[in-house]
Amino acid sequence: MEHKWFSQLKFLITGTLFGIVFVKAEVISWFRIQEMFRLQSFHMYGVIGSALLVGMLSVLIIRKFNIRTIGGEAIVFHPKKFSKGQIYGGLIFGTGWAITGACPGPLFAQIGTGATVIVITLLSAIAGTWVYGKFRDQLPH
Amino acid sequence: MDVIAFVKQPWPWYVAGPLIGLTVPALLLLGNKSFGISSSLRHICAACIPANIPFFRYNWKKEAWNLYFVGGITLGGIIAGNWLSDPSDMVIHPALAAELSSYGIHSHHALIPADLFSWAALGSLRGSLMMIGGGFLVGFGTRYAGGCTSGHAIMGLSTLQWPSLVATACFMVGGFITANLILPLLLSL
Lengths: 141, 189
What we know:
Chain A is an all-alpha fold. Chain A has helices at residues 5-24, 30-37, 43-64, 85-100, 104-112, 118-135. In chain A, helix 1 crosses helix 5 and helix 5 packs antiparallel against helix 6 (118-135). Chain B folds into two domains: 1-85, no CATH class; 116-189. In chain B, helix 4 (39-48) crosses helix 5 (64-83) and helix 9 runs antiparallel to helix 10 (162-187). The radius of gyration of chain B is 19 Å and the shape is globular. The interface between A and B is large, with 118 and 129 residues.
């Protein structure tokens, strides 16, 4: 059931709505990211802050009332374990974020809006992930 | 003003932010999935170029929902870009506009500046460093950090996980340093 394509359709639709919000709120704009990192605009702080607030409240409600999935499963949260990777990787991603003006999600949305050259940025990001996987054991964590 | 014209304007943060936040409960309720986008890059590696690397040897098909989700984001980009886009120029901070024009970047008509991100720009040192180099850092850094803005800054912080706070702080530190000190060097190439 879980592997059938129609059970995945709901994620495709959620992604589509999410992508539309990304574009319409200019979250995928290189300019807005530059303004954020130069403290020239409140926009991105407002977007991330209010998204976080709504996410936090939702999780609180789900936990408080033991809300289950539409399939009746108990909802599981996956704790994140600390590693030095969050520091080194975080700084490296921050660098890439400021240069490309995009995190992974916006890369997909930018391509959708017709900026086809971003396929190159995305392929390079996939290559970056691959290189991390290849040399993972040699990196400090 | 009709509905479509209303929707076509850029959406303010207090509309977009809460909608993005609702993705967290939506994915949990629809299928017990934790919001996170950068994992999709790992699944693509596992599906296409696993090369017997232990980090890519897992059943990525179980995580296929994530690929449908990013496929949806692309589709959302197509819909918003083709039918809901605002024809007017981007409104950007005058100081940023002045700074960019000192590097010969004058295009403000699209969400991303065509002077920097286009097939023509890919042939220049500046363009290739920013697109290929920047993209590499995004893919490498997010996986090293175990998540990106969605997985750490939104999902991780929503569930009150302190490692995600560390990661988010580092994203911001890296971004501030780069945008203010490193990017000017790249832009002047």
